[in-house]
């Protein structure tokens, strides 16, 4: 492929990530210096079960996250992505001298597509499991259905388990427990949580929120009177449920189809926690950063991860302190945002990532 052809192709690859394969009569200015095709980009690719849009895009682009920028779509246009399905074929070919991507739909997936209707840029819908997601759903689903970060004051006043059977303090599956502060009906489902570690800003030391620990699922069998005592059945315990654990309504299991994009404003933050206490985080690890909605962070934002600057070894104490330049080691895909914190999935990391490493907008 000639250099001029490669430059034109770069303008059209965004459709892959969005799951929007369209035919543009005109495309904006080429972004040759910013967008690069893979050296071995295929002429066509057949979507298979288990594919993600991030992974498919990586077969064509060296920087998969740049899908939205290539098409220069505004927010209104990004709000209507189409799904792509196993069996669909993505073709890279020449149209009027310009390379373009187009989608050859597989007729056998019509029934699947009927279940996944058009929706907003950040689409929330019961997950059918047919369409290719942006990032691996198995890696983030547990974090979507549970409130992992809460405000300390709100957590303190949440309904709580006040008593178990036979005066036991540790509860398990099949136990009937008693709780106060519930305003719900018979059959309503709740999740139990225990207070966890505080999440602090590494620079100011300020507590930004509390990471709570999910312990199990419960259902109300007798609601009692509000403010009095309700009876619940423990349906599942993933850890020891204890008297004093707080109760939060169980959310619906939902699937979010994120559209990757870069923050428009300057954004610099730090990794403050690795979920599960992993010291050396690798691909598909969930990381917590000290930036959130109040900093302009959105679902689907992609941030670059840089190793924390390391000090050069001195030969004597009088030598000035110098640091090796920090290097990019991965991408962080933001999939859950709180006011001052956010959770992101680590992708494409080349070396282990640690608490204290930096994140920046691309």
Describe this structure as you would to a colleague.
The protein has 362 residues and is α+β, with helices and mostly antiparallel strands. The chain is 14% helix and 30% strand. It has 8 helices and 22 strands. The chain has helices at residues 3-10, 14-18, 53-60, 67-71, 75-78, 110-115, 137-144, 152-156, and strands at 44-46, 89-95, 98-104, 123-125, 149-150, 160-163, 170-171, 176-180, 189-194, 198-200, 207-211, 213-222, 229-237, 241-242, 246-249, 255-257, 268-274, 286-289, 302-306, 328-337, 342-347, 358-360.
Specify the helix fraction band. Answer: 10-25%
Give the domain tally: 3
**Overall residue-averaged pLDDT value:** 75
What structural class do you assign from the helix and strand content?
alpha+beta
**Molecular shape:** flat
Compute the gyration radius: what is it? 24 Å
Report the end-to-end length measured between terminal Cα atoms: 28 Å
Instruction: Going across the biggest sheet, name each strand in turn.
Output: 6-8-13-12-9-15
Number of helical regions = 8
Run of helices and strands: HHEHHHEEHEHEHEEEEEEEEEEEEEEEEE
Number of strands: 22
| Unreliable runs | 1-33, 70-81, 108-128
Query: Which sheet architecture does the biggest sheet show?
Result: 6 strands, antiparallel
Share in β-strands: 25-35%
Which helices and strands occur, and which strands form pairs?
Layout: H1 3-10, H2 14-18, E1 44-46, H3 53-60, H4 67-71, H5 75-78, E2 89-95, E3 98-104, H6 110-115, E4 123-125, H7 137-144, E5 149-150, H8 152-156, E6 160-163, E7 170-171, E8 176-180, E9 189-194, E10 198-200, E11 207-211, E12 213-222, E13 229-237, E14 241-242, E15 246-249, E16 255-257, E17 268-274, E18 286-289, E19 302-306, E20 328-337, E21 342-347, E22 358-360
Antiparallel strand pairs: 1-2, 2-3, 4-16, 5-11, 6-8, 7-14, 8-13, 9-12, 9-15, 10-11, 12-13, 17-18, 17-22, 18-21, 19-20, 19-22, 20-21
